[in-house]
C-alpha cells in the first residue's frame, strides 16, 4: 500500500517529467507542425480558395459532412499526419469567402495584410483590456479609432472595437439610455419610463434584437417609413415621435442607417439630425455597411451630416475587407460616457495604483472582460494600402457596380429592382418561361421560386454564391454585393452567364 507521501512524490514527479501531450515542450516539433499547417493554409485556403478555377464551396448534406469530418472527439490523441489531414478537410469543405465568386455576404475577398494581422493577433493571443498585457494594441486601437473618427468629422471623442456591428448598435442604444437615465445602471428597468426608439423599416435586425436584449422590448422600436429607395422619411419620423409621446412613451434614440443591408440605401442624415436636435434625441448612425464610403472623396457625400451623430457603428470587415471581426463603435462624447456606463472597477484587473497611467486600461469601457484584438488587421492593411489605396478600393467597387447595372439593363432576362445607390445591386433573373408574362396573375409567385432553385444549383455545383431575399411585396430577388477588391469585369460577366446557364430550363 502506497502512503500519502509517496503519492505526493509521484505527483510532483509527473509535473517535472515530460509533458503529456505529444508536442508540449518540443519546440522543433511545434515549429514543424505549424510550418506544415501554414503550408496547407497557403495552398488550400489562400491559393485555391481565391482561384476562380476552383470551386467556391463543396456542398455536402449535413449527415454526409458529419461522417466525412469524423467530428466525434475521442479519448486518444491522433498522429500528426492525421491532424494535417483534418486541417485539409476543414478547409476543403468550408466555403471560400475570399473566392472571386463569393457574393453572398457584405464581406468577401482576402486582404493579405489584414490576414497577416489576424495571424499575428491569433499567435499573440492577448486580450485588449489592459496596457499591461496589450501595450501595443491599446495604443494602436486608440490611433485607429482616432483615424475613423476623423473621417466621420470629429477631432475628439471616444470609441471601442466591438464584436460586430450588431453589438456596436446595442452599445449605442445602451449609451443613449444611460446618458438620459444614469440611474438605470444601478436601478435597472425600475429607473425607466416606457422608452421609444426610432428606426426605418430597412434597418438591420440587430436594432430589434438589441431592444429585446437590453430589456427595452421590441415594442419600443417604432418603425419609420422609408421611401421607394429605402431611405428613412424624416417627416414620418416626426409623426412617429409625436405618436409615441401621445401614447405615453419617452423617445430617446433615432437609429439611422448608412448603407442598408438589402437595398444599400443611405438615410438623409442632415434632415434626421435636425429632427433629433429639435426633440433632443440621441442620433446613432448604423454605418456598419456604408461607413467605409467615408474614405472616398467622390462618394462620401452619401453620408453628409454624419458628423452630427452622437454615435456611429462602422464595420471595416465589410467593404474594406479587414476580416471578421472588425467593427468600431465611435462616439462624439468626450465625457468618458463609455466608461461611466459600463465600468465596474474590478480591483484585480484595473488596479488604480499601477506603475503606469491607468487611463490606458481601456477594458472597463466595455461589457466584455477578455476582448479580442481587432485593430491590428485594419492598421496593417491601412499601413500597406494607405488611405489612398483604400479609397481606390471603394471607388472601384462603385465603378464595377455601374458596369453590372449596365449589363443587367442590356441583357434579356435580367431586371433591376431599382437603380442602386451603393454597391448592392438588387435584380431578378427572369427565366425563359416567365419572360413577357408579367401580367399573368401567378407571375410574382412563380418568379419567387426562381432564386431559391438557382441558389441550390449554384451551391451544389460550387460555381458561385449570391444571396436572395423577398422584400416587402417584391418577389425573391438576388442581391449582388461588390465588396471583393479583386473583382474584375470578367467576374461580373461570369455571374450573369452562370445565372443564364443555371436557369435556362426554367
Ligand atoms: C446595416 C447593418 N448593420 C449592422 C449589421 C450587423 O453587423 P455584424 O454582422 O457585424 O453584427 C449589418 C450586417 O450585415 C448590417 O448590414
UniProtKB/TrEMBL annotation:
Note the Pfam families from the entry: Pyridoxal_deC (PF00282)
The alphabetical list of record keywords is: Decarboxylase, Lyase, Pyridoxal phosphate, Signal
Cellular component per GO, a single term: cytoplasm
> Matching CDD domains, A to Z?
DOPA_deC_like (cd06450)
Reported cofactor(s): pyridoxal 5'-phosphate
One GO biological process term = taurine biosynthetic process
InterPro entries xrefs: PyrdxlP-dep_de-COase, PyrdxlP-dep_Trfase, PyrdxlP-dep_Trfase_major, Pyridoxal-P_BS
Molecular-function annotations in GO: pyridoxal phosphate binding; sulfinoalanine decarboxylase activity
Q: Which residues form the signal peptide?
A: 1-22
Instruction: Identify the PROSITE patterns for this entry.
Output: DDC_GAD_HDC_YDC (PS00392)
PTM N6-(pyridoxal phosphate)lysine: at which residues? 318
The similarity annotation says: Belongs to the group II decarboxylase family.
| Quaternary state and interactors | Homodimer.
Q: What is this protein called?
A: Cysteine sulfinic acid decarboxylase
Amino acid at each position: 500500500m502506497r502512503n500519502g507521501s509517496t503519492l505526493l512524490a509521484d505527483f510532483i514527479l509527473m509535473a517535472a517529467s515530460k509533458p503529456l501531450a505529444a508536442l508540449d515542450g518540443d519546440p522543433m516539433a511545434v515549429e514543424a507542425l505549424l510550418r506544415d499547417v501554414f503550408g496547407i493554409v497557403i495552398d488550400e485556403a489562400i491559393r485555391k480558395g481565391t482561384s476562380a478555377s476552383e470551386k467556391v464551396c463543396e456542398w455536402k448534406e449535413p449527415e454526409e459532412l458529419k461522417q466525412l469530418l469524423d467530428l466525434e472527439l475521442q479519448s486518444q490523441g491522433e498522429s500528426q499526419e492525421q491532424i494535417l489531414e483534418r486541417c485539409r478537410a476543414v478547409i476543403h469543405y468550408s466555403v471560400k469567402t475570399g473566392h472571386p465568386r463569393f457574393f453572398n455576404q457584405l464581406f468577401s475577398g482576402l486582404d493579405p495584410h489584414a490576414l497577416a494581422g489576424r495571424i499575428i493577433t491569433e499567435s499573440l493571443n492577448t486580450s485588449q483590456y489592459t496596457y499591461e498585457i496589450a501595450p501595443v494594441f491599446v495604443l494602436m486601437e486608440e490611433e485607429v479609432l482616432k483615424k475613423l473618427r476623423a473621417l466621420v468629422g470629429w477631432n475628439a471623442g471616444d470609441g471601442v472595437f466591438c464584436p460586430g456591428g450588431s453589438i456596436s448598435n446595442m452599445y449605442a442604444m445602451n449609451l443613449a439610455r444611460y446618458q438620459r437615465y444614469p440611474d438605470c445602471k444601478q436601478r435597472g428597468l425600475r429607473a425607466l419610463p416606457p422608452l421609444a426608439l426610432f428606426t426605418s423599416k430597412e434597418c438591420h435586425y440587430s436594432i430589434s434584437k438589441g431592444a429585446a436584449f437590453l430589456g427595452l422590448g421590441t415594442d419600443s422600436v417604432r418603425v419609420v417609413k422609408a421611401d421607394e429607395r429605402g431611405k428613412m422619411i424624416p417627416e414620418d419620423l416626426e409623426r412617429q415621435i409625436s405618436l409615441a409621446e401621445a401614447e405615453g412613451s419617452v423617445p430617446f434614440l433615432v437609429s439611422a442607417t448608412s448603407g442598408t443591408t438589402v437595398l444599400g440605401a443611405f438615410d438623409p442624415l442632415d434632415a434626421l439630425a435636425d429632427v433629433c436636435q429639435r426633440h433632443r434625441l440621441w442620433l446613432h448612425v448604423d454605418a456598419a455597411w456604408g461607413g467605409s464610403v467615408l474614405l472616398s472623396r467622390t462618394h462620401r457625400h452619401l453620408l453628409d451630416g454624419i458628423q452630427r451623430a452622437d454615435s456611429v457603428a462602422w464595420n471595416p470587415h465589410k467593404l474594406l475587407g479587414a476580416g471578421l471581426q472588425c467593427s468600431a463603435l465611435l462616439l462624439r462624447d468626450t465625457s468618458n460616457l463609455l466608461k461611466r456606463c459600463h465600468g465596474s472597477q474590478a480591483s484585480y484587473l484595473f488596479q488604480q495604483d499601477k506603475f503606469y497611467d491607468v487611463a490606458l486600461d481601456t477594458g472597463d469601457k466595455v461589457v466584455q472582460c477578455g476582448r479580442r484584438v481587432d485593430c491590428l488587421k485594419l492598421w496593417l492593411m491601412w499601413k500597406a494600402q494607405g488611405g489612398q489605396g483604400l479609397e481606390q478600393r471603394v471607388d472601384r467597387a462603385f465603378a464595377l457596380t455601374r458596369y453590372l447595372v449596365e449589363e443587367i439593363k442590356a441583357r434579356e432576362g435580367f431586371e433591376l429592382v431599382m437603380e442602386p445607390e451603393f454597391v448592392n445591386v438588387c435584380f431578378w433573373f427572369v427565366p425563359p418561361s416567365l419572360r413577357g408574362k408579367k401580367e399573368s396573375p401567378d407571375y410574382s409567385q412563380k418568379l419567387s421560386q426562381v432564386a431559391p432553385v438557382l441558389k441550390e444549383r449554384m451551391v451544389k455545383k460550387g460555381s458561385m454564391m449570391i444571396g436572395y431575399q423577398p422584400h416587402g411585396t417584391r418577389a425573391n430577388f438576388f442581391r449582388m454585393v461588390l465588396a471583393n477588391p479583386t473583382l474584375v469585369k470578367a467576374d461580373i460577366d461570369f455571374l450573369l452567364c452562370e445565372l443564364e446557364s443555371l436557369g435556362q430550363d426554367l
